Each structure stands twice: as structure tokens, then as C-alpha cells.
Design the sequence.
């Protein structure tokens, strides 16, 4: 494995981390439209908290996909064709949710608004859940042949482990969304988000324990990389402790940063476990390795130069747009 | 399940369906972004509030189009991996780079600045706010550039080698990929086409509104701004199309011969078939209505010269590729589709220029002539839909014309499809996308019509009593 290949493995992981940190609260806020927010006014407010940002946040996913294609096409080809039906459902969820905010604002009837609110809420829920499920299934190991083609059956990606993974990611996103709403609103919404977060954090603790146990039995993480895996699992729990502390002590920034970092921690945990592979096969001889999956050194070098030039500029205006809209919204 | 369907035909159908649908909204968004940016610029320069309302009003259609364009674009990106995994493996070294750069450079720019534009009306002064829509507009054009760079490689592969060990295409010169001649014919043609789309949708919708005689000044001025863009763009799209055609004769002669329904060599001077009946099985023209010399003018800008027919080119391609791809390849492209698509495209292009000239005559200086020319308003109204037909026709020619290859001369369509995806999966995804697109298309049309029907009244009123803005100053509580 060359340095460039290693760098791009990290970069793809970083893009997915960025995606889960940012879209994490978008998905969470999307789900609150039909749960936390109870009046039309409140639904307007929660949607407006992510209004100027959700589109740019989703670009992190598109960039992660593009970066994967540009650096590890064997990974991209195998992953996307292998998880065909999950990705189809993810696309449907992302599409419904993507148009829902704009379409809802044009609706004149209560039932019209209601329809697109459900589209936003369910789209956000399924996107989070299915991504969680897909990444869990990915590290468990899938039927992959010598050509790198994966032909998975229903039970290969729908099983106890992957469902728990999906639920855990959904819950993390939901809490991340609640923490975001606590930062971005005032009054009853802010108060209610706090109250809802309290019991949910105890559910999350339980979920994390179950997930860690299933991780032990379903993957080779603890046998192949016992130290780093343990550290990352402990870090996940500690971050949740911090977030819980932020909830009970009402430290809003602490909760938000901690819930965001725990989503990143999950991505790092999965990528750490994957390494030095990009796809885990049932038959370990067919696992796809970083060293075999990548593009030529020429392309990797080119992409490195371009990314390192463009990323800082992009981050400046991206962060600036958050600063511009950093205001609490009242209902 | 065996319905006589192959993964290849289903994957091709899906690519056609998703690309065509996505490409309704891409040129519309690129074009509307420019038209709205120009309107807002006029507002900044002239300080006439009507142009601000214009930008806001047409901005609504733009935002609808943008939303659908974005979400259908994600399908496009995922599709290469999902349905065309062997293509992705073969081409990843070259194709992935422009795709990733497009996301990194253009998508972040568009999506961030459109957010600032949408929610920033009261938070920024007029000049800075206007800069946001220009940055969005430039973002959409940069995006077009990178995705067409990728497409151009598929049409005309340059700057690469085939790695003999892996059998994959490998980039050797990024500069060559970006400088690809194909790209610099295709990009301006597509961009001008997008500007035509944006401007004629604005002009056409405004014409429908004028028929109702409400907000006449507002819609008359909308027509004026958009048709100025429309005239420049339609001349541009025809001119670039002409240059691109002459390039294609050289690089993809089969594509060109098919757009002219030419089976036998034309001989010199070459006459042009206006319409033609084709026998695609036996590869010959049944009947045609022809004008002498015109094909030579189109092809070479001269009055003489032979244009090669498909039968000759087919033999040449067999001679060139049989060693590599075998004798059984079919090099004839879907001639009927290309022939008629080409006519739809070129006739539309000419019509756009003509209508723009007539329209601009009716709205010249302070003339209100257009309000009484109801026949013309109808014509202009119908032109709302024509750019979409022209755009689709253009892409059908481009994409079907590279048959039987995905990457011209390098990889056949049959070798590109995912080997591990089942017919059932593809059938399901085709049905899902079809339903989804029908639904989205209907909602788009209904909402656009409604926006037009309601007109800019709320904007004009809100000018007095400051509209509700969630990020406006009065909306914030001060702790």
C-alpha cells in the first residue's frame, strides 16, 4: 500500500465523517418534523433551522461518492452494485426528502403540507437507518467473488446486527438533530428538545452496548485490532456520557459537539476495522484490499493536488455560511 | 423470472430514462440561474424595484427546478456504480476525477450560495446578494464543464493508455483530458442550449401570463430581459452546433451519417434530405425529399464534396476493430432516432432565434405592442416546452450516436454493465424511478403553473410591509 493510497482511504473516511456529522443533524431535524414539532409554526421553525444548509450538507455525500470513484473505483463498483436494493431505497429516501422542503413551502392545503412533511420525516428516517444498515453489513462480510462482484441475499444485509446498526445510527442522528434544535431555537421547542433527549440517551447507551456485543461476534474487529477497536468503542461511550452530561447540565454546545463526534467515531470505528481492506468478503481470500482497489498513482497524485487546493477555499465559504445564519429562531 | 428482458437492455433503459429526466432540470436550472442573475443585476444597476421582484418571482421557478435537478443528479452518480460496475472498474482512473472535482468545486459552490441567496435577501446589501446568484450561476456552469469533460472522454478518448497488466484505462495526461477538442465544442453548445431553455421558459410563461392581462408591465419586461438572453443564446447554440457537426464528421462519422439518414456515399455535390423514409434492416433509404448542395454547406461550408454513408463507414469500422471486438459487432447506430432528433433540434434552434427577434421587435423601447399580439403570445407560450424537446434530441444524438460503445472504440456497452445485478433488481428500480419521475414531473408542472397563476402580487404587496423572513431581523428573539 502506497502513501497515496493510505491518504485517500483516510480522505474518503473523512468525507463520510463530514457527511454524518452534518447530514446527521439534518436527518435528525428532518425526523423531528413529525415528532418533536407539533404545530405548523414549530414545523416551519425546525425546517428553517436547516433550510440554508441541508443542500450543501448533502454535497458531502456526493463528494464522498465521487472521491471513492476517483480513488478506489473497485471499491465503488463493488459496493454500489452489491448493495443495490439498499441504495435504491436510500435514493428514494434522499429524493423525497430533498424535494420535500421546497415543495412543502408551496403547498396551500393542510393535507399537501402534511404529505411533504411525512416525505421529509420518513425520508430522513430511512436514509439514516439504511446507511447505518449498509455500513454495518459492509464490515460484517459479504459474499464476494474473485472478480470483486458481490451477490448478497436478503439475509446477508438484513439481520440482527445490521438492524441494530441501523437503529443505532438513526438514534444518533435523531439525538444529534435534537441537540442542533436546542442550539438553533428558543422557547418551547428548545425546552422540549431537551426533555426528549433525556430518556433517549439512556436508550442510546443500551443500544451502544448491544451494538458493541454484536460487533464482537459478527466482525473480526476485536480479534484483528483489539486495542484500537476497544479504544474507539470506549470513546463512543464516553462521548455519549459527555452528551448526556450536556443534556442534564443543559450545556448545549457540549451535547451538540459530542453527538457529532460520536457519529464521526462510528465512521472511524468502521474504517479502522475495514483497514487494510475496503470490502470484507465472507471468504477472506476475496476481500478487496486498498492496495488493489485504487486508481493509478498518476490519478491519485492529481486528485491529491486538486483536493488540497480546493478544500480549504470551499471550507472557508462553507463555514462562513453557517456563521451568517448562526441565529436562534423563535416560533 | 424471465420476461425476455436482459440486464443490459434494462440498464440501458434506466440510463436513458434517468438522464433524460435529469436533463430536463439541468439546463433549466443553468439557464434560469443566469436569467435571474441578470435580472438582479439590472436591479442593482438601475435600482428599479421591479427587477428585484422579477428576480424573486422567477427565482421561485428556479428553486423548484434546482431541487429536482439536485435529487435526480444523485441517481446519476450512484448509477455508474450500481448498474455499470464494470464500466466503473475500467474507467475509474479517468472518469472518477472529473466527477469528484465537479462535486468539490461546483456542487459546494452552488449549494452554499443558493442557500445564502434564498435566505439572505434582508441580511445583505443588494450588491453582495446579487453576487450570490452569480456565484450560483457560475457554479452551475462549472458543474456542466466537469461532467461534460467526463462525457467527452467517452465520445473521444484522449490522454490515456491501456494498462496491459490490469486491462484498465489509465490517465496519462489530465491536461489532454481537459483540453479534449470534443469538450470545447460540446460545452458551449450545451451551455447556450441551457440559456435558451432558461430564457424561453421565462418568456413563454410570461406570455401565458400576459394573455390574462394581469401585471402586464412586469411580464412584458420579463419577456424583454429573457428574450435578449434568448436571442444571443439561440444564435450561440446554432453556431456552436454547426461547428460541432463539422467536428463530428471527422471524429464520429457514423453518428453524422445517421443524423442525415445517409446510407450510401452522397457523391459530390451532396444533397440534403429534409425528410426521409428509412429501411433500417437493409440499410437503405426508401424515399426522401432532398435539396441539392445543402449537405455540403452543412458539412464543409462548401458547394462540393463527398459525404461518407453508413455502409462505407460500417466497413471501415469492421476493418479497424474486428481484431479486437470480433466480426459480429453491429456498428450501425439507431438511425431513425438520430435522423429525426437532429431535425427536431435544428428546426427548434432556428425557431428560437426567429421568435426572439420578432419578440424583441414587439417589446422594443417602450412599445407595448406585444400585449395586443395575442397570436404571438400563444406562439411564445408554446415555446416554453420546445427547449426540452430540443435538449433531449441533442442528447439522444450524442449518446445513441456512440453505439455500440460506452467509451468510443474502447469499451462496448455490453461489457460495461454490472454482472452481479439481477434482472429483478433492475426491473424494480426501473419501475420505482418511473413512478418517482412521473410524480415529480407532475408536481413540478402543477407548482410552476400555480406560481405563474398567482403571479408576483405577493411580492409587490410585500414591498410595503416587509415580507416574513425566518432569518430577518424581526424574527429573532434577543436573549
Sequence:
Amino acid at each position: 500500500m502506497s502513501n497515496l493510497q493510505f491518504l485517500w482511504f483516510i480522505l474518503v473516511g473523512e468525507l463520510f465523517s463530514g457527511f454524518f456529522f452534518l447530514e446527521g443533524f439534518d436527518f435528525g431535524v428532518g425526523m423531528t418534523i413529525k415528532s418533536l414539532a407539533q404545530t405548523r409554526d414549530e414545523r416551519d421553525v425546525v425546517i428553517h433551522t436547516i433550510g440554508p444548509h441541508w443542500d450543501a450538507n448533502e454535497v458531502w455525500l456526493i463528494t464522498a461518492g465521487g472521491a471513492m470513484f476517483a480513488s478506489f473505483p473497485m471499491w465503488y463498483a463493488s459496493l454500489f452494485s452489491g448493495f443495490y436494493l439498499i441504495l435504491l431505497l436510500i435514493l428514494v429516501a434522499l429524493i423525497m426528502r430533498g424535494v420535500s422542503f421546497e415543495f412543502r413551502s408551496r403547498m396551500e392545503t393542510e393535507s399537501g403540507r402534511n404529505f411533504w412533511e411525512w416525505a421529509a420525516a420518513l425520508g430522513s428516517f430511512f436514509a439514516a437507518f439504511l446507511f447505518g444498515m449498509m455500513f454495518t453489513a459492509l464490515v460484517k462480510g459479504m459474499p464476494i467473488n474473485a472478480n470483486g462482484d458481490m451477490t448478497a441475499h436478503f439475509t446477508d444485509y438484513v439481520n440482527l446486527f445490521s438492524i441494530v446498526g441501523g437503529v443505532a445510527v438513526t438514534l444518533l442522528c435523531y439525538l444529534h438533530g435534537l441537540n442542533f434544535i436546542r442550539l438553533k431555537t428558543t422557547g418551547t421547542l428548545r425546552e422540549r428538545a431537551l426533555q426528549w433527549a433525556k430518556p433517549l440517551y439512556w436508550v442510546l447507551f443500551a443500544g451502544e452496548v448491544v451494538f458493541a456485543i454484536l460487533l464482537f461476534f459478527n466482525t473480526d474487529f476485536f480479534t484483528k485490532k483489539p486495542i484500537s477497536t476497544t479504544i474507539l468503542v470506549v470513546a463512543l461511550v464516553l462521548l455519549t456520557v459527555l452528551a448526556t452530561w450536556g443534556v442534564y447540565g443543559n450545556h448545549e454546545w457540549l451535547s451538540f459537539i459530542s453527538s457529532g463526534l460520536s457519529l464521526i467515531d462510528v465512521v472511524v470505528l468502521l474504517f479502522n476495522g475495514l483497514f487494510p481492506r475496503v470490502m470484507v468478503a465472507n471468504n477472506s481470500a476475496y476481500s478487496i484490499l486498498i492496495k488493489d482497489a485504487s486508481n493509478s498513482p498518476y490519478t491519485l497524485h492529481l486528485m491529491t493536488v486538486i483536493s488540497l487546493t480546493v478544500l480549504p477555499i470551499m471550507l472557508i465559504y462553507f463555514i462562513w455560511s453557517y456563521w451568517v445564519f448562526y441565529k436562534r429562531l423563535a416560533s | 423470472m424471465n420476461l425476455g428482458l436482459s440486464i443490459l437492455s434494462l440498464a440501458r433503459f434506466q440510463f436513458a430514462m434517468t438522464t433524460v429526466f435529469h436533463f430536463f432540470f439541468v439546463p433549466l436550472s443553468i439557464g434560469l440561474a443566469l436569467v435571474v442573475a441578470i435580472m438582479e443585476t439590472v436591479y442593482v444597476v438601475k435600482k428599479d424595484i421591479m427587477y428585484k421582484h422579477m428576480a424573486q418571482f422567477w427565482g421561485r421557478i428556479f428553486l423548484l427546478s434546482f431541487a429536482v435537478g439536485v435529487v435526480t443528479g444523485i441517481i446519476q452518480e450512484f448509477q455508474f456504480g450500481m448498474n455499470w460496475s464494470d464500466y466503473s472498474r475500467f474507467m475509474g482512473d479517468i472518469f472518477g476525477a472529473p466527477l469528484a472535482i465537479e462535486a468539490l468545486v461546483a456542487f459546494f459552490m452552488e449549494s452554499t450560495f443558493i442557500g445564502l441567496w434564498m435566505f439572505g435577501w434582508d441580511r445583505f446589501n443588494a450588491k453582495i446578494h446579487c453576487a450570490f446568484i452569480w456565484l450560483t450561476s457560475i457554479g452551475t456552469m462549472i458543474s456542466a464543464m466537469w461532467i461534460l469533460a467526463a462525457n467527452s472522454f467517452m465520445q473521444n478518448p484522449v490522454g490515456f493508455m491501456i494498462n496491459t497488466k490490469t486491462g484498465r484505462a489509465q490517465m496519462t495526461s489530465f491536461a489532454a483530458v481537459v483540453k479534449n477538442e470534443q469538450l470545447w465544442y460540446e460545452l458551449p453548445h450545451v451551455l447556450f442550449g441551457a440559456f435558451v431553455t432558461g430564457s424561453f421558459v421565462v418568456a413563454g410563461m410570461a406570455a401565458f401570463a400576459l394573455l390574462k392581462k394581469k401585471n402586464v408591465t412586469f411580464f412584458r419586461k420579463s419577456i424583454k430581459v429573457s428574450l435578449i438572453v434568448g436571442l444571443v443564446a439561440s444564435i450561440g447554440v446554432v453556431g456552436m452546433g454547426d461547428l460541432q457537426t463539422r467536428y463530428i464528421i471527422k471524429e464520429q462519422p457514423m453518428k453524422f451519417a445517421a443524423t442525415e439518414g445517409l446510407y450510401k456515399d452522397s457523391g459530390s455535390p451532396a444533397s440534403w434530405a429534409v425528410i426521409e423514409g428509412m429501411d433500417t434492416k437493409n440499410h437503405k433509404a426508401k424515399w426522401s425529399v432532398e435539396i441539392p448542395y445543402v449537405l455540403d454547406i452543412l458539412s464543409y461550408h462548401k458547394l462540393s464534396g463527398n459525404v461518407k454513408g453508413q455502409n462505407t463507414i460500417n466497413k471501415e469500422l469492421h476493418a479497424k476493430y474486428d481484431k479486437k471486438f470480433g466480426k459480429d459487432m453491429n456498428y450501425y447506430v439507431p438511425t431513425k432516432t438520430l435522423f429525426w432528433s437532429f431535425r427536431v433540434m435544428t428546426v427548434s434552434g432556428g425557431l428560437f432565434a426567429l421568435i426572439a427577434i420578432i419578440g424583441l421587435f414587439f417589446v422594443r423601447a417602450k412599445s407595448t405592442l406585444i400585449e395586443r399580439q395575442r397570436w404571438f403570445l400563444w406562439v411564445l407560450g408554446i415555446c416554453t416546452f420546445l427547449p426540452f424537446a430540443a435538449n433531449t434530441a441533442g442528447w439522444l444524438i450524442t449518446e445513441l450516436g456512440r453505439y455500440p460503445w460506452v467509451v468510443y472504440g474502447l469499451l462496448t456497452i455490453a461489457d460495461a454493465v454490472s454482472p452481479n445485478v439481477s434482472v429483478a433488481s433492475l426491473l424494480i428500480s426501473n419501475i420505482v424511478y418511473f413512478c418517482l419521475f412521473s410524480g415529480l414531473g407532475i408536481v413540478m408542472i402543477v407548482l410552476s403553473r400555480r406560481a405563474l397563476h398567482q403571479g408576483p402580487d405577493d411580492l409587490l404587496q410585500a414591498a410595503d410591509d416587509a415580507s416574513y423572513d425566518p432569518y430577518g431581523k424581526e424574527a429573532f428573539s434577543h436573549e
Q: What stands out?
A: The mean pLDDT of chain B is 90. The two ends of chain B are 64 Å apart (CA to CA). The longest helix of chain B spans residues 7-46. The first strand of chain B starts at residue 160 and ends at 162.
